[in-house]
Amino acid sequence: MDSARSKDQWRDKAREIDHAAASDDVLAFLTSWPPLRGVVAAYLPMVTEVDLTSLAGVGSVRLVVPRVGVDRTMTMRLYDEAELESHVFGFLQPTEHAALVEDADIDVVLLPGLLFDRSGGRLGRGRGYYDRLLGRVPDSTVRIGVTSDRAVVDVVPMEAHDERVDWIVTESGMSYSGPSFPDAALEVMQSAIDAGIAPRMQRFPDGTRTSVDAAKAVGCELGAIAKSLVFEVDGAPVLVLCSGDHRVDEEKLAALRGGSRARPASRERVLELTGYPAGGTPAVGHRVPMDVVADVSLARYRCVWSAGGTVDTVYPVALERLVAASAARWADISTRG
Fold first, then answer.
1. Within the chain, what is the greatest distance between any pair of CA atoms?
2. I want to staple 98 with a disulfide (CB 3.0 to 4.6 A). Which of 77, 84, 209, 229 is the partner?
3. Pairing state of beta strands 100-101 and 74-78?
4. Comparing C-alpha atoms, which of 197, 159, 198 is closest to residue 176?
5. CB of 308 within 8 A of CB of 185?
6. Angle formed at CA 275 by CA 269 and CA 279, multiple of 5 degrees
7. What's the DSSP call for residue 21?
8. Confidence at residue 96, expressed as pLDDT on a 0 to 100 scale
9. Handedness of CA 59, 61, 62, 64 (dihedral sign)
10. What per-residue confidence (pLDDT) applies to 47?
11. Domain end among 176, 200, 233
């Protein structure tokens, strides 16, 4: 059976499912999930879909919803109940006067779907609007499928252009739908979630131990790798977040900390303090709480890549969120090279 026909048959069956009754429970799980803040892209529901419009009243959320133009392009507009109109297909959408929000500003996408599978596969209505949106948002943007338990199945038909979600939320809660990772990476993921980041963790067989290795693996500039380095200033530990194309100036770090000498911690000391190996040290979730300094070299970037707790895992993250989650303070403590 060809994929398109298979999808059509799945859609015919899935359209019979009414998800609207799950709305209150889904909203309760979403609003209690720390990473749900910032610019959140959702949708205006059809009658059988989970209704998320009350997210507009959540103080930490700036809710945006899609508008489909006459040229069939989809843009995201700030949700305003006074600026809505009916689309020809029957659903509500923002008017052309509603404030446009750039795709690059979106922190979280909440996606509707007819069906989802436990590996993040999504079966939409067949027009590809959300697949194209997910191809345009930053790597760090979290993708969450919104549905009810009845619409989560083992496998849905997927094609090469179909985008997957990272999480699925139903009336039973929020569940991770990405690939499997070592325990250390999963621990980092949970620590990051508690701190307001939902890592889209990625694993690379060739390793990401050095900044050069990591930049090559993910295909980004060397400077966009946010190194997490443990130093000791007169014996007191401090974590430094520094751009991959800069090195920490030990004299500057010592002066910042009011000490006489700063030196890199040994591999054994890094493991003792953080619980993670050097080369995989995360920015959050350490065994021993430490002061954290973010070097200004990172400020060039909106999105950076941070270590995931092993020497072969990293994840993209909005710099603003990484600094907030790690409680870092900014300082100029590096030199180029």
1. 72
2. 77
3. antiparallel
4. 198
5. yes
6. 75
7. G
8. 92
9. negative
10. 87
11. 176
CATH number assigned to the domain comprising residue 295: 3.90.960.10
Rounded CA separation 231/187 (Å): 23
pLDDT of amino acid 157: 85
Residues 116, 228: Cα–Cα separation, whole Å: 36
Domain that holds residue 295: 185-336
Given 176, 208, 234, the domain boundary residue is 176
Spatial distance between the Cα atoms of 325 and 83, rounded to a whole number of angstroms: 35
157 and 192 both lie in a single domain: no
106 and 139 assigned to the same domain: yes
Q: Which residue is listed with tokens 């549905």? A: 147
Domain count, the chain: 2
**256, amino acid identity:** L
Do 319 and 289 form a contact (C-beta atoms < 8 A)?
A: no
Q: What's the rounded Cα separation, in Å, for the pair 229 and 262?
A: 12
Same domain, 9 and 158: yes
The CA dihedral of 321, 324, 327, 328, to the nearest 10 degrees, is 70
Residues of the chain with pLDDT under 70: 1-5
Cβ–Cβ under 8 Å, residues 215 and 193: no
Tokens standing for residue 266: 């040994």
User: Token pair of 121, please?
Assistant: 């596969």
Quick check: 202 and 218 in contact, CB under 8 A?
yes
Q: In this predicted structure, what is the pLDDT of residue 15?
A: 78
Structure token digits, residue 269: 């000391």
Do both 163 and 233 map to the same domain?
no
Does residue 8 sit in the same domain as residue 136? yes
Same-domain check for residues 299 and 277: yes
Q: What's the pTM?
A: 0.92
